[in-house]
Amino acid sequence: xxxxxxxxxxxxxxxxxxxxxxxxxxxxxxxxxxxxxxxxxxxxxxxxxxxxxxxxxxxxxxxxxxxxxxxxxxxxxxxxxxxxxxxxxxxxxxxxxxxxxxxxxxxxxxxxxxxxxxxxxxxxxxxxxxxxxxxxxxxxxxxxxxxxxxxxxxxxxxxxxxxxxxxxxxxxxxxxxxxxxxxxxxxxxxxxxxxxxxxxxxxxxxxxxxxxxxxxxxxxxxxxxxxxxxxxxxxxxxxxxxxxxxxxxxxxxxxxxxxxxxxxxxxxxxxxxxxxxxxxxxxxxxxxxxxxxxxxxxxxxxxxxxxxxxxxxxxxxxxxxxx
Length: 323
Ligand code: ADP
Prior knowledge:
17% strand, binds adenosine-5'-diphosphate, Rossmann fold, alpha/beta, 2 domains
């Protein structure tokens, strides 16, 4: 094997750079060049790449985002486009592809393998932690830590003024960030897309805790929550309990920033092991995590299975210990 390719795809996540760095250096140690495709499948289709050597990944492990860029590339759903891209890749001498992204990106990777026998390996990188077959995805830990830091700051105001805050965190279809943020930041309540009709319970809980003299109330809301994110929830709940409230939408600050130690470590292991899998002829695998250790999981299983349910038991825990 002389040359591999790597791309980052879908939403960017802190730790993607650490995965690229590990993949490049593991390949280089085996005398394999790494082509970094720019902006996900968009660059792959357009044959836009740069060779990334050992030195090119110096000083990136601590940086958020992805230095080779990412995108969504609807064109890649077209089998004709994939065929042309696979032929182009071969013509450039690229013998296998590492895809860092979520399950959508893995569907693209698997299509290349199934239709054109391109050896592929997946590295789960998404802040939402919603990939089947892995306990954790790269970026989740950092995103939750960022959200918790922001909630801590809002809590000072909540405590001082007695105002209730509805804080929206990312997660269009996954409540994982919201659930972990709520427990870690000591929120009074949490609403996520996977658990419906929690309003009346939350309203009852808030009324009770106000009666008991609790002054600061933080309610964490996942953006994909059924009532329309934090603004929708605030209107329903805030009006029902007749308490002054404010809404804070954390938005994209959750995506960037220095990756946490945890994300750097899991990304580094995944990058190195993805290269090892391809070199040793194991294709179509994702490097996931199980019980704190990296594991190879067939990509076919990852994309076939439903998104894993987040820890919905954390919902009850957040409420039970919020006072
Ligand atoms: P994520 O990888 O985070 O789940 P998306 O679902 O947006 O993000 O997918 C990222 C990209 O992967 C898409 O823009 C597209 O280029 C590619 N992709 C997604 N689904 C498929 C599919 N079924 N077939 C081929 N490519 C796909």
